Amino acid sequence: MNENGNYQTLSDKALKLMRISSFISTSILIMIPAVAACVYICINNSVIAGISVLICAALLTAAYILIAPKIRFKRYRYLIASDRVEIIEGLFFIRRTIVPIDRIYQIDIKTGPLDKAVGVAKVMITTAGSIASFRFLEPDVADRISMYLNETVLKKLKVKGARQDV
To answer: What's the domain count of the chain?
Structure first.
């Protein structure tokens, strides 16, 4: 699909979904405990400390929602070559996943409720040992990738002498 080695990037819809997922995760990880701490502190007659905790948590949440998705968006790259699939992603730790094409045995396209709301999809590539996924793709791009990978795997199987009914 991309023989010249250029990595593909994501559409702007991906950034929107990254922001939504960042908001949900920070709401659970930061804001809920902060509200609980604020209530506990206020019950113990220290309203200023409670409000300070809540303001600090809100600022951390806002910073994470504004900064983290941009970094993840800029770092997310994928490459589909004739012999391999590469996916590079991460926020603090960069993960590079390389999947040889001839190791793929299942390809799925998935969309969750948030994916549907934003208009993106995931392509899940299953091998004998793991699952790799292209996330935040436009639905037509996800379809093209899955069809290309399926055709490439079938061609490689036929070259190796696999049965015709595969």
So the answer is: 2
Give the full edge-to-edge strand order of the sheet including 131-137. Answer: 106-110, 121-126, 131-137
Its pTM stands at 0.80
pLDDT 10s digits, 29-87: 887 888 788 787 878 877 777 778 788 888 888 999 999 999 999 999 999 998 899 99
Identify whether 107 is part of a domain: yes
Q: What are phi and psi of 82, to 5 degrees?
A: -70, -25
CB 37 within 8 A of CB 50: yes
Question: Does residue 84 sit in the same domain as residue 47?
Answer: no
Q: What is the CA radius of gyration of the chain?
A: 21
Dig out the tokens for 162 from the structure: 């696999």
User: Are the CB atoms for 65 and 24 separated by under 8 Å?
Assistant: no
Residue 37 belongs to domain spanning: 12-73
